[in-house]
Amino acid sequence: xxxxxxxxxxxxxxxxxxxxxxxxxxxxxxxxxxxxxxxxxxxxxxxxxxxxxxxxxxxxxxxxxxxxxxxxxxxxxxxxxxxxxxxxxxxxxxxxxxxxxxxxxxxxxxxxxxxxxxxxxxxxxxxxxxxxxxxxxxxxxxxxxxxxxxxxxxxxxxxxxxxxxxxxxxxxxxxxxxxxxxxxxxxxxxxxxxxxxxxxxxxxxxxxxxxxxxxxxxxxxxxxxxxxxxxxxxxxxxxxxxxxxxxxxxxxxxxxxxxxxxxxxxxxxxxxxxxxxxxxxxxxxxxxxxxxxxxxxxxxxxxxxxxxxxxxxxxxxxxxxxxxxxxxxxxxxxxxxxxxxxxxxxxxxxxxxxxx
Length: 356
Description:
Strand order of the largest sheet: 4-3-2-1-5-6
Mean pLDDT: 97
Largest sheet: 6 strands, mixed
Order of helices and strands: HEHEEHEHEHEHHHEEEEEHHEEEEEEE
Number of helices: 10
Radius of gyration: 23 Å
């Protein structure tokens, strides 16, 4: 899939003639091809993808809406880009100031011999609102992740290590069609479940422990993301109570979410449930983040989320309670922001604490 038409519309709105795309994810968004090690240039009538001999054949087959050209020693990338700029007739050309370093931005100005404009939030704005094709890819990724979880829940047992469970999730996502991990999976057990971003290690699962699994895979380059906390063998009343509070908080945040609502207001709806239950100080991170080609994309549904979530955005919904040195609970789904509600695409069970 390519988004050349949407980029051109945005260029017109911003009074720009072309945009130079050097970020890998934005190149994929523009031309539908993930690996160029080069650049994409989108003008109002012409668009170009410039890559080298490693990717030229695949680019010619897969890239859409662009003219593919190869750079090499005799035809270096800056020279081909200057030629492409001339062919577009562009005068006001933007570059990704939010993705390039300051030195990188100035270097491209020097190489092209033009004064570049700042693209600003051009790609953030476009990528926040997913097309139905993009949503379909993310749902597909979600189903793969859920299938992996379902299988792994049948094999988790006392004596397994966090690292073993993480390896099983990764293997099964790949086996069922995932293209790789959305991020390094988080699998923690026992007291480590109080660490929201704990790293899987050699800690052994024991009866009576929580196991928290936060993971996702890629499909067509798009991310899935989910978290489930389960108990092994048994759970105390306090563990069950905390799980129930987190679930109610998540449902409150989801109920508050719809197009036009500020991210911080969604966060507040969930945070209020946790605070009223007496655990407010133990929920430190935000309620959610948008995702797509990147696992974290703006806007954000957190304490500082001052932007409204647009219709067509996909956001995580992941409140948690973390009691240091004891245990933690997080439950995470992904939801599509619709004009008048939030549509949860995650199907994995959560309505009651799963005790394996």
